[in-house]
């Protein structure tokens, strides 16, 4: 997987990393983030059809952290209840005030970069304290835009999405797609972008990729390019509350700070939906203790996906409703102007997995592989995946592959 990006159209902000100076606090924050990630994903599966899905919990958590900075009253209480922490706590501030930007080391083949741009309706005066906190804590840029003029082709939002907005305040502009945000004012939106580039610790060989069957949820099969390698991996078997078993395989990236967890029901008759519904953040947090180094034959399909979802009903289902209500939202910590609220929330994520971890085109070689006697992990039916930062415990991306041959929209 070489290039992966996620963009959230909302007030987005990074949740919390582990605090290097306070391991117990860091561990608890990591667990809270994992719980939120699983709840967010499960809520999305209730509204999304049975199709490929990817979401970046850490990007959406960023939005809620920034919202907390400026929220007051009942709006703040809802955010605290959903996230399980208060950013106004000095200990939390210390944990999240570490600089963002490039978190990976590009010289080691891995780069993870975050960009946050807060769009504010023209005429809204921000409080200096909020502006300073947003910039210092979260490396955010602030842009003034006109949400009611949707027809400009080259908008600040487009520029921000391509990394062209820079780190300074921009002059007022028109926001393409403004109709999505409605005509009512005052309101705001934040562009949060996550860009990931990385290569596998051990790359799959193109010459060992074959077109093999993948069984869909309805029992039909499709032929997909199935990557293969015989290697040592972290592998474990776990049990759901329903007593159904599932397996977890971990594939590390080049610098071993990031890894992809592939989760598969052990019984071919157990649907992925059952695993998704019964999974808990606590169970995910305990996977590390149950993973063992194992020599295995690994089969993993190439896949490429693009998901765009409306986050507004998702966050409302999670308990965050006041922020979207013009009559109830309380963001006096952002501006003294009354009526400031979040108008809409959209999240977009892209992902591609290939042999070298990169976006690369290659012919699929049709050959028979020499099988070893090692145990086999074969993702030839719907599976769950989690891309995480190992040391910080952050869930960067979470999703499912139900059809690797499904076209990207």
What features would you describe in this structure?
This protein is of the alpha+beta class. It folds into two domains: 4-198 and 305-351, Antithrombin, Chain I, domain 2 (2-Layer Sandwich); 206-301 and 360-401, Alpha-1-antitrypsin, domain 1, CATH 2.30.39. It is 24% helix and 32% strand. It is built from ten helices and 17 strands. The protein has helices at residues 23-47, 57-70, 73-83, 90-96, 128-138, 156-161, 272-278, 281-285, 287-290, 311-317, and strands spanning 4-9, 53-55, 110-121, 140-146, 170-174, 187-198, 210-215, 221-239, 245-252, 258-265, 292-301, 303-310, 341-342, 346-353, 376-378, 383-389, 394-401. The strands form two sheets. Strands 2, 7, 8, 9, 10, 11, 15, 16 and 17 form a nine-stranded mixed beta sheet that branches. The longest helix is centred in the first third of the chain and has 25 residues, at 23-47. It starts with a strand and ends in an 8-residue tail after the last strand. The model is unreliable at 1-23, 98-105, 151-183 and 358-369 (pLDDT under 50).
Record keyword descriptors for this entry.
alpha+beta, Antithrombin, Chain I, domain 2, Alpha-1-antitrypsin, domain 1, 8-stranded mixed β-sheet, elongated, 9-stranded mixed β-sheet, single chain, 10 helices
């Amino acid at each position: 997987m070489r290039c992966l990006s996620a963009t959230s159209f909302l007030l987005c902000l990074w949740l919390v990393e582990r605090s290097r100076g306070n391991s117990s606090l860091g561990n608890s924050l990591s667990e809270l983030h994992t719980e939120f990630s699983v709840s967010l994903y499960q809520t999305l599966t209730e509204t999304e059809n049975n199709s490929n899905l990817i979401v970046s919990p850490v990007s959406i958590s960023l939005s809620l952290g920034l919202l907390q900075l400026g929220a007051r009253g009942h709006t703040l209480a809802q955010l605290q209840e959903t996230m399980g922490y208060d950013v106004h706590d000095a200990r939390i501030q210390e944990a999240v005030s570490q600089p963002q930007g490039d978190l990976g080391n590009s010289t080691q083949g891995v780069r993870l970069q975050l960009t946050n741009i807060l769009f504010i309706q023209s005429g809204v005066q921000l409080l200096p304290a909020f502006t300073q906190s947003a910039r210092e804590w979260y490396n955010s840029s602030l842009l003034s835009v006109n949400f009611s003029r949707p027809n400009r082709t080259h908008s600040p939002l487009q520029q921000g999405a391509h990394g062209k907005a820079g780190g300074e305040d921009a002059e007022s502009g028109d926001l393409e797609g403004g109709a999505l945000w409605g005509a009512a004012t005052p309101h705001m939106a934040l562009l949060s972008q996550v860009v990931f580039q990385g290569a596998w610790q051990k790359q799959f060989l193109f010459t060992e990729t074959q077109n093999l069957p993948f069984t869909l949820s309805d029992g039909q099969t499709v032929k997909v390019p199935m990557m293969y390698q015989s290697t040592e991996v972290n592998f474990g078997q776990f049990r759901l509350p329903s007593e159904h078993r599932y397996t977890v395989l971990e594939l590390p990236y080049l610098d071993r700070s990031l890894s992809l967890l592939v989760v598969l029901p052990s019984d071919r008759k157990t649907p992925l939906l059952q695993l998704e519904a019964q999974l808990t953040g606590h169970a995910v947090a305990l996977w590390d203790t149950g993973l063992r180094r194992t020599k295995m034959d690994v089969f993993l399909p190439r896949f490429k996906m693009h998901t765009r979802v409306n986050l507004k009903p998702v966050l409302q289902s999670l308990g965050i409703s006041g922020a979207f209500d013009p009559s109830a939202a309380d963001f006096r910590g952002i501006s003294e102007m009354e009526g400031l609220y979040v108008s809409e929330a959209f999240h977009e994520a892209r992902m591609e997995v290939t042999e070298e971890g990169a976006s690369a085109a290659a012919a699929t070689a049709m050959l028979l592989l020499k099988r070893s006697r090692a145990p086999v992990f074969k993702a030839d039916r719907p599976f769950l995946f989690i891309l995480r930062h190992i040391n910080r415990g952050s869930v960067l991306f979470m999703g499912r592959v139900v059809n690797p041959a499904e076209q990207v929209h």
